[in-house]
Amino acid sequence: MSTGKVRVAHAAIGQVAADERERLEQRRALVVARLRGLPTASVTSTPKKSVRKATVNLYQPSVSLLNSSLYNCQMRMKISARGRRMMPAPKAQLTGLHPMEQYNVWLEFVGSSGHRECFRHPDSPKLGSSWMRDTVRFDRVKLYTYDENRRVVHDGAMLKTSQLYSVDMHIAQVEDSGHMPRSSHRKLSFVQPWFRPFNAGDPEPK
């Protein structure tokens, strides 16, 4: 890397670090003001767009599937009307997150005909430092037989036995308002091999 690029990178990192210190000081001042019953309007301020953009650019989320050896191309997964635990359950390690920002993490099941189902990790939202420290497990996700009369399942995804599916992981920062900025959203290839669901009561396809 050239000397000029190194200086630019160092300047950007320094700016982000300064902004983080300012945000922490604002949070401390806000807590003190609330405890003392003082007005808080003058304490809070909106982060500058340029600084926010620099922060997003410096932190690039990535994911590693820790049990990738358990996934085979076009493998079969059991589903049922009452829901069955996804086996094997994905385990992943996240890196590159902003340690002080809140993140939502969710899985998206993408069918070969475009059918999509999502499952948000029950720990969402959580600090980036916590996501990176702990193994991200999806032991609780259940796979249901698709039912057009049932619109939503909150603990899993409804899948069609006539389709092949892949799985992507999505990560996005969560602001205090609950909004997830489009610029912070990342879609990461998680389970690349396609799998076919089949009902638990049916014989396993050959």
Automatic annotation (TrEMBL):
<protein>
    <recommendedName>
        <fullName>T-box domain-containing protein</fullName>
    </recommendedName>
</protein>
<dbReference type="InterPro" id="IPR001699">
    <property type="entry name" value="TF_T-box"/>
</dbReference>
<dbReference type="GO" id="GO:0000978">
    <property type="term" value="F:RNA polymerase II cis-regulatory region sequence-specific DNA binding"/>
</dbReference>
<dbReference type="InterPro" id="IPR008967">
    <property type="entry name" value="p53-like_TF_DNA-bd_sf"/>
</dbReference>
<dbReference type="GO" id="GO:0000981">
    <property type="term" value="F:DNA-binding transcription factor activity, RNA polymerase II-specific"/>
</dbReference>
<keyword id="KW-0539">Nucleus</keyword>
<dbReference type="InterPro" id="IPR036960">
    <property type="entry name" value="T-box_sf"/>
</dbReference>
<dbReference type="GO" id="GO:0045893">
    <property type="term" value="P:positive regulation of DNA-templated transcription"/>
</dbReference>
<dbReference type="GO" id="GO:0001708">
    <property type="term" value="P:cell fate specification"/>
</dbReference>
<feature type="domain" description="T-box">
    <location>
        <begin position="77"/>
        <end position="195"/>
    </location>
</feature>
<dbReference type="Pfam" id="PF00907">
    <property type="entry name" value="T-box"/>
</dbReference>
<dbReference type="GO" id="GO:0005634">
    <property type="term" value="C:nucleus"/>
</dbReference>
<keyword id="KW-0805">Transcription regulation</keyword>
<dbReference type="InterPro" id="IPR046360">
    <property type="entry name" value="T-box_DNA-bd"/>
</dbReference>
<dbReference type="GO" id="GO:0000785">
    <property type="term" value="C:chromatin"/>
</dbReference>
<keyword id="KW-0238">DNA-binding</keyword>
<keyword id="KW-0804">Transcription</keyword>
